[in-house]
Specification:
There is one protein chain. By secondary structure, the protein is of the alpha/beta class. The chain has three domains: 110 residues, Double Stranded RNA Binding Domain; 29 residues; 200 residues, P-loop containing nucleotide triphosphate hydrolases (Rossmann fold, 3-Layer(aba) Sandwich), CATH 3.40.50.300. It contains 15 helices and eleven strands. The strands form two sheets. The protein has an eight-stranded mixed sheet with strand order 7-6-8-5-9-10-4-11, with helices on both faces. A three-stranded antiparallel sheet has the order 1-2-3, with helices on one face. A hairpin with a 2-residue loop joins β6 and β7. α10 packs across α11. The longest helix has 23 residues. This is Putative ATP-dependent RNA helicase DHX30.
Length: 429
């Protein structure tokens, strides 16, 4: 009768003694043993380096293998296992079967720390295998596989005579009806402004690195022709000073009284400057608001001041609703929670040139965490500029927190004159 305990004991003996394996193969040619799965481990210095770069390594690994299973329709065998040893420490073991079978293990004082260490090992291994990029985004197909596909011979297709005639008629129709309209500039992806000025009718396709010149030209003309004649606000008198401070400092703290125009004008000041320098496509501004309604209202107001519709240069992104602008060259108003989600995927916020945290005096948990994580993002991204705005913040407190890299400016507010009248004066009892 088959005895499972005897079988397990035999497997242990076979795995320990290679000579036993050789003898069994001579007696039984079809005998095979399970090869041990290799283990991958990186140095403590690499662990420290990756910790600074990836805030949630376990989420990155889980999301990566979920995407592989969903898109490739394969079982990756990704499994985290935890147990406590005799020293009351946590052992964590991560095993995967894709792209190759491998094991990662760690020992730490807490369960979360043990899981973090094995995840960082897995991230480094996947980057070595060219399955993750430097920011932790999946590369399901490696660069070598891309090159192999690109250089492989083109397959030939035999088309029926009817299909050839249909394709020829479509090409002929395009050349006769569609192409002349494009050459005359009658097709545009942007709705004309109310003044119907022809020189603003630019075609804005989805942008790649080949489209930066066209985008810069559009932003330059749009800025110089539409950002004039606006109602004067107190902050307009400080435009040049503000832009100089933002240019020369990593962190700018703006203490502006209510009504000074900081929430609507500061993003436009920055975009205007970069557009006039013909580098508007490099300017991507992300403005956070503590409430959804504020993000929606400000996005509409800034788009109105630019005489354009939402979704071109200005957009918004809140929970369950968004109208994102065309990139590159954009201003996005969002709730604080949305930026926190972006920080999980990219702690360095490399897709933005400026991050503006508005209403920083509100002591909600999202704003407090944002202030901490954006300080870390400045260390990971040398090109990022951080702007903190509020009406009642303690500028000295923020200055001490961010150190010498921060500078502060105060903007006076604007209030309408109020006259008090008493009914008792007009209506005597």
């Amino acid at each position: 009768m088959f005895n499972i305990r005897s079988f397990i004991g035999l497997q242990n003996v076979i795995s320990r003694f290679p000579s036993t394996q050789r003898h069994l193969k001579l007696i039984y040619p079809h005998f095979s043993t399970v090869q041990p799965v290799p283990e991958y481990k990186i140095s403590d210095e690499d662990i420290t380096r990756l910790k600074r770069k990836f805030a949630s390594p376990r989420n990155i690994i889980s999301n990566f293998y979920n995407q592989v299973e969903r898109t490739q329709n394969i079982k990756t065998g990704c499994h985290f296992g935890f147990n406590k040893n005799k020293k009351n420490q946590w052992n964590c073991k991560l095993s995967v079967q894709w792209p190759n079978p491998i094991v990662f293990s760690s020992v730490a004082t807490t369960k979360a720390k043990a899981g973090e260490i094995v995840s960082l090992n897995a991230i480094q291994w996947l980057q070595d295998m060219e399955k993750l990029d430097h920011s932790g985004k999946p590369l399901i197909v490696s660069n070598k596989e891309r090159i192999d596909v690109a250089t492989s011979p083109i397959a030939s297709i035999d088309l029926s005579e009817q299909s050839v005639k249909l394709i020829s008629s479509l090409v002929q129709k395009y050349n006769q009806e569609i192409k002349p309209l494009i050459n005359k500039g009658k097709l545009t992806l942007i709705e004309d402004d109310e003044n119907k000025e022809d020189d603003l009718n630019f075609v804005l396709p989805s942008f790649s690195h080949f489209d930066y010149t066209n985008r810069n030209e559009y932003l330059y003309k749009k800025t110089t022709q539409t950002l004039s004649g606006l109602v004067q606000l107190p902050i307009d008198n400080y435009e040049l000073d503000l832009l100089e401070m933002i240019e020369n400092n990593r962190i700018t703290i703006i203490k502006g009284e209510p009504g000074c125009g900081k929430s609507t004008r500061v993003p436009n000041f920055i975009m205007k400057k970069w557009s006039q320098e013909k580098r508007g496509s490099e300017c991507n501004i992300y403005v956070t608001q503590p409430r959804r309604i504020s993000a929606l209202t400000l996005a509409n107001r800034v788009a109105e001041e630019r005489s354009e519709e939402l979704g071109n240069v200005v957009g918004f992104q809140v929970r369950l609703k968004q109208i994102l602008p065309r990139k590159p060259g954009s201003i996005v108003f969002a709730s604080s929670g949305i930026l926190l989600q972006k920080l999980q995927a990219d702690p360095g916020l490399r897709e933005f040139s400026h991050v503006i945290i508005d209403e920083a005096h509100e002591q909600d948990i999202n704003t407090e965490i944002l202030l901490m994580l954006t300080k870390n993002a400045l260390q990971l991204n040398d090109k990022l500029k951080l702007i903190i705005m509020s009406a009642t913040l303690n500028a000295e407190h923020f200055q001490n927190y961010y150190g010498s890299s921060a500078t502060t400016i105060e903007i006076p507010g604007f209030t309408h004159p109020v006259k008090t009248q008493f009914l008792s004066v007009h209506y005597k009892c």
